[in-house]
């Protein structure tokens, strides 16, 4: 029963960062909150003189690049900022000359991350707004207090440069959608347990209020603005928990987890059939879990699980059960196990109508259990 492992780990990360500002746009010069202090090159916030489809906004940062190379503008954030879970940064530039663009984040007197925007060969077209995109994943979770941008690099002409819409984003959630994160405690749930569902690691990128819609899998649902709820299950078995998180703009994220509930002192969760087949020759699938975990559930010399199937009025027969872990490809295309979706499964195909009895047999180093 390690379905909760990933959750616990992520919660820890969020606890570390819980007081950090996560907004996507961190400098657009439209409000005091999104306008850092600016300096160098007569830097100032001005009305956008080139409103267009790329940048229709009202206010932008302007600075003057003098003759020569490597003249930068600095943005200073009085409250320490943080990259959080951001992996990507975008911003817009409008320069009267064509040159390369370089960015450098500082935390106090240390450089956090610096590179070409978005690479060395990129020289944005002059006299138009251009959006640049760069990978800042190396700085995830790191604080910063200052951002310097040098535009028109490797072009010695003086230039008037405008900058705007400095924004972070993350694959954890599409833009504008809430980020969902919850834990279930305790890890082993009995019918006697008060189960805590803690979604306090969830957040909205833009700080919008969230509604938490829980489906607790046993017929109970709950819609609340509270990010922590408790529940007690009346019977052992398999439950599919789903949380749908919706912000005030109506954008939702959802995540499901499997939960097995045990009778106290019992090894076996009971068998739950995940499809309601009522005709012969259709496959039936049952899921179950044990309170014990095994180093290698695929090795029959460590653990062997069989289902004894007793058809109506017929001879019983055995079907081996198997351990199932859901896998999905990650960003790099590697298959990764999802610890939220693992359990024992048994499948069989009834040959005739009637009531079937299924008995689960477990054999491990402690002996045989039925
Ligand atoms: Ca703006």
CATH level 1 class label of the largest domain: Mainly Beta
Please give the alpha-carbon distance between the first and last residues: 19 Å
Summarize model confidence as the mean pLDDT: 84
Distinct ligand kinds: calcium ion
Order of helices and strands: HEEEEEEEEEEEEEEEEEEEEEEEEEEE
Gross geometry: elongated
Classify the secondary structure makeup into a structural class: mainly beta
Output the radius of gyration: 28 Å
Strand portion: over 45%
Unreliably modeled segments: 1-23
Number of domains: 3
CATH topology of the largest domain: Jelly Rolls
Major beta sheet summary: 6 strands, antiparallel
Question: What is the total tally of β strands?
Answer: 27
Helix content: under 10%
- CATH architecture term of the largest domain: Sandwich
Structure description:
This protein is mainly beta and 370 residues long. The protein folds into 3 domains: 5-14 and 176-262, Immunoglobulins (Immunoglobulin-like, Sandwich), CATH 2.60.40.10; 25-169, Galactose-binding domain-like (Jelly Rolls, Sandwich); 272-369, Immunoglobulin-like, CATH 2.60.40. Helices cover 3% and strands 48% of the residues. It contains 1 helix and 27 strands. It has one helix at residues 5-16; strands at 25-27, 37-39, 44-47, 59-65, 72-82, 88-95, 100-107, 110-116, 130-135, 143-153, 159-169, 183-185, 189-190, 195-198, 210-215, 221-224, 228-231, 237-247, 252-262, 272-273, 284-288, 303-310, 317-320, 322-329, 335-348, 357-364, 367-369. The strands form 6 sheets. Strands 1, 3, 4, 6, 9 and 11 form a 6-stranded antiparallel beta sheet that branches. It has a 5-stranded antiparallel beta sheet with strand order 2-5-10-7-8, with no helix packed on it. Strand 26 and strand 27 form a beta hairpin. The chain is elongated and about 95 Å long. It starts with a helix and ends with a strand. Mean pLDDT is 84; it is low at 1-23. The structure holds calcium ion.
